[in-house]
Write a structure and sequence with these properties.
11 strands, Immunoglobulin-like, alpha+beta, 2 domains, three-stranded mixed beta sheet
Amino acid sequence: MFKKRLQTLTTRILPFLFSGCVYPVYKTISPTSTIYVVDEQAKPIKEAKVYLFSDIMHGRNESNLTQQTDAKGSAHFERVSQWKLESLMIHGRSTYYWNWCVEKEGFETKFTHGYTGFQEDSKFTLRKGIHTTCNKVKEDYFYPDVIKHYDFATRYQNGEMYQTVRGLIAKMLNPQTAKEAYAQLQKLPAEYVPYIIMNMNDRRAIPVQLLSFTKDTEHTFESIPHYEVRRVIEVLDLVSKYILKRNMPRPEYTHYHNRMYNSLLERWRLWLYLN
């Protein structure tokens, strides 16, 4: 009897399991969502063009829906669902994520980016500035027109906070005052982060190559967080993460080169633009 059951399992059930078990699923391609668009005086912006991008994680762009805001500055999207075939095999399931993009002549383009920035009920405040079209180009969309050519200097590269950061960088380059500069940088409030980012493209070598943070921080993996650093950009990157309480796994700065530094700067400028 046992032998017969084992034979049945081998000949009928196991091939079915290893076939990947394809099954139909009714998937939400785009969720029911509403967005409200206002200007810096909290007044509704009429006829702003709103994009709702739907993507498959680690996959392709699924759909791009568009609406225009009404007199109240709102645009509404109904849920879109489709039947999809999935399987139990690796990568046999599709996980969707969504992003907003809003554009209007005379205003800076506003958007979310990545897997976690989308909210089904969102409110966007558009700032006066140069209009840029919402372009979907691979995963780094908006970079060519919005980030690379955005005039960050006019908004952030001046004032007392900017000069404070510049002064601490000068102290960082002096062997006698470097540790003091590190301590003062990590005590800066979050309002200073944009001005730290504006000074981040500084690749000068530093004399003191050990950066230590306070032991009671909750956003590092090490109980005693020490980091080996070689250049100003590396210190400013870690300090910015520390101030914002972002997760700080130990970076491998020893393998960094100019292309990787450029990518690091782009990510921080994207953060600055979105915030």
